[in-house]
Amino acid sequence: MEQKEKIILTGDRPTGKLHIGHYVGSLRRRVELQNSGLYNKIFVFEADAQALTDNIDNPEKVRQNVIEVALDYLAAGLDPTKTTLFIQSQIPELCELSFYFMDMVSVSRLQRNPTVKTEIQMRGFNGESIPVGFFTYPISQAADIAMFKATTVPAGDDQEPMLEQCREIVRRFNNIYGDTLVEPNILLPENAACLRLPGTDGKAKMSKSLGNCIYLSDSADEVNKKVKTMYTDPLHLQVNDPGHLEGNTVFTYLDAFATDEQVARYTTDYATLQEMKDHYTRGGLGDMKCKKLLMAVLQEVLEPIRQRRAEYEKDIPAVYEILRKGCEVARAAACETMDEVRRAMKINYFDDRALIEEQARRFQK
Questions:
Q1: What is the rounded CA–CA span in Å between residue 242 and residue 231?
Q2: pLDDT: which is higher, 355 or 158
């Protein structure tokens, strides 16, 4: 289907506060896109219903984190006058579209989705213990995207298999019922270091459960403490030893956050980050000096975020009101799409006057 409007949709599961991996992976880009003026509509949502698929016995965890994530969104710079912020569970039409999409995907296709495989392994599910809702979340995610006719989904590279499955579902729907929905494209971070920021311990993923996160809401002292204990190069035992950049979390973070202007401003020896890297690899540069630069850079990035969060925390009812209004806007858009979907699928029985009149004539013969 040809889509004239440029629409963004993206979101997060409210299972914990957002961390700097979320920020460089997607959140920072969302703010830039919001302020670019290039998109007609921007939808950012909290996937609370999806979060419940593997937290069904702990709904309070999701309930409490809805406000935490909303505060992180606003603190990071998302503007509710430019971006529609909403909560997934408050849009019942998403369940309906997911139900129809389930008829278009086989079990074997879901089993081949590498993102689903990885998530299942991470959570320790085995074949018969996988919740159906969790197993089918690529379908739910496809409904989220298709419902708002998103042309662009800012996300990390781990979400590419999910976007491809969404495109498959939309393509099949349109082939069967006619052009109705839009195939989305993924928008990856431009900086390769931002694709998947590792945890502070050097593990592949930053995760609350692993205790290796720096949160957007962490205090300055907490950030500095976490940076001081960050994983670097285990072979760099003495200052004069040649250092290695690959797998060195400090330099991965500097690649993701630091500009050359900041390097020159916060150090006296280097005009660019590359100059610092060169010194480190040939030896003679200690890890703590690199960590001090990272502390300064992160504080510069995070302090405005902390300040905005503190202001929003003063009026939590107002934050819930922002979400409520966003849900109203999102539901109106969802209702429009579902009207089109029902017409295409020919299940809009009571709105189809031609059908009613045709059936009336048939039975009058």
A1: 16
A2: 355
DSSP state of 237: -
**Residues 102, 100: Cα–Cα separation, whole Å:** 5
Range of the domain at 241: 208-311
Classify residue 345 as exposed, middle or buried by CB count within 10 Å of its CB (0-12, 13-18, 19+).
Answer: middle
Residues 28 and 165 in one domain: yes
Structure tokens at 137: 């979340």
Co-location of 79 and 112 in the same domain: yes
Q: How far is CA 161 from CA 64, 117, 138, 148, 185, in A?
A: 30, 11, 9, 20, 12
| Tokens, residue 111 | 């089993």
d(CA 57, CA 166): 28
Is the same domain home to 166 and 222? no
In sequence order, what are the beta bridge partners of 154?
Answer: 187
Q: CA-CA distance, 154 to 27, in Å (whole number)?
A: 9
The string of pLDDT tens digits covering residues 72-108 is 999 999 999 999 999 999 999 999 999 999 999 998 9
Q: Kindly report the average pLDDT of the chain as a whole number.
A: 93
Same domain, 244 and 222: yes
Q: For the chain, what is the domain count?
A: 2
Answer yes or no: are the C-beta atoms of 1 and 174 closer than 8 Å.
yes
